[in-house]
# Entry
Amino acid sequence: MARYTGPVCKLCRREGDKLFLKGERCMTPKCALERRAYPPGQHGRGTRFRRRGHASDYSRQLREKQKARRLYGVLERQFRRYYREAARRKGPTGANLLTLLESRLDNVVYRLGFADSRAQARQLVGHKHFWLNGKPTNIPSRLVKPGDLITVRQHSRRKKYFKERAQIMEERGVPAWLSLDLRDMSGRVLNLPSHEDIDFPINEHLIVEYYSR
# Structure
């Protein structure tokens, strides 16, 4: 199971946008983008952000693709497979791509509030803390569908993390395409997410243009 293991704050600085890769830390003054709002590296300070208006079409397409890929924690080969599947399905390719990314199990666990970040959700799924439709799973990239039930494993509910998490989740909402039952520590997929359900601005048209070159 390949994954990025480098410093994630540099990814936010490189894209010039908060990708919320460290959960709650990204909402505090400790956020690297708040302290150093320029790309990493010796040529980063004042270089790209100052010239953003003069970026080429290819540069804007690449950056949008990289931003989406890093937001969901997907490596290039897997992201390309998602694009091919999105192009194969009926409807707009860009919208299909975002639906596929949002339908990943680790993203659903994050959206339900069981984790502060997608990386943390990926780890929780990998450690088999969740059941999908009554069966244990440790595949973060598994795609969910309407009607699927995600439940915290009975043994895991007794752990300190999930006891404290339940208190935090009471104050947070979930997207309209999901439902949450805190009493059973479970969530259900009501329908597939649409572009309006995504709370992070992604220009999927630039991604389609990048792969259509």
The chain is about 40% helix and 10% strand.
